[in-house]
User: What shape does this take?
Amino acid sequence: MAVFRWGSSIDAFRDLEREMDRWLRSVNFSMDGVRIGRQYPPVNIYELEDEFLLTAEVPGTKADDVEISIADGMVTIRGDRSDAATIPEDRFRRCERPRGAWERVLALPERIREDDLHAELTHGVLTLHLPKSPPSQARQIPIVDSEPPAGSNEAPGQ
Amino acid sequence: MSEIKSTPERRPTPASLRTPSKRVCTPPIDIYEDQDGLVLRADLPGVSVDTLELQVQDNKLTLFGRVSTSVPKDAKLIYQEYHVGDFLRSFILSDQVNHEQTSAKLSEGVLELTLPRVTQSEPRRIPIRGE
Assistant: This one.
C-alpha cells in the first residue's frame, strides 16, 4: 500500500477511485441479466441516417400478443406473456422470468413518419422501425412593422 | 430435495464457449415440476436454434446461446437499457434426472428443456426356499 503525503492527497483519492472501479469490474455479479426492479421489456434505441430503430427483448411473446400504437410523439408498446399461467404456483422450484401483461410508453426522439412504421419480431426480439420525416422547409415569418406613424406618439399637452 | 441446481458461473468456462470480446449474460430461468419430471425454461432473446449449444458433461448441463445483433452496423446507439450479449448458464443435474431422455425446444427466444425423472425400479420380491 502506497503511503501518501499531504501534498498529493488528491492523487491518492484518484488512485482509490481507480482501484474501486477495477474491483467492481472484477466482481462477478451472478445476477447480471436477471432483471429485477427494471422496466419490462428493456429497450434500446438506435439511430440511422433515415430512421430510428427501437429494439426490445420480449422472449416468449408472439407477434399477435404485441400491440404498438403511436400518438402525440409517444410510442406505446403493450403485450402479454402468459406461457406460465397454467402452471400452479406450488410447482415452481425457481421463478425468475418476468410474466404477465406489460406496457412501455416512450417519447420519440424527433418527428417520425407515423404512417410508415413497421415492426418485426424474431427470436423474441422486437424491432420497431421509426422512419424520420424529411426536414421541413424553412419558412419565412413575415414581420409586421408595428411602429406607429410618425407624429402620433408625441406626448399630449406639448 | 432439488434435482437440479444452478451453479454460479465460475471461470473458466469451457474454452469452446468463450467469446472474449462480447458481454456474457445470465438468462433468467423458471424450473417447474410436472408429472414426468422437471421443465426448465430460459429466456434467450435473439438466440436461434443454430446459435444455441447445449452440453451435458458428467452432471453439468451448460447452455450457451450466441446472439447476433439484428441492427445494422452503422446504427448509433442513442438510448440503452440492455446489453446485447451471449447467454451462458449451467446447472448441476442430480441422479434423479434421466440425462439420456432430456429434450429441448426453442421458440420465440425461449428454451424449454424437459428433464424426465428416472423411473424408479419396482420393489422385487425375493422368494425364500425352505430346506
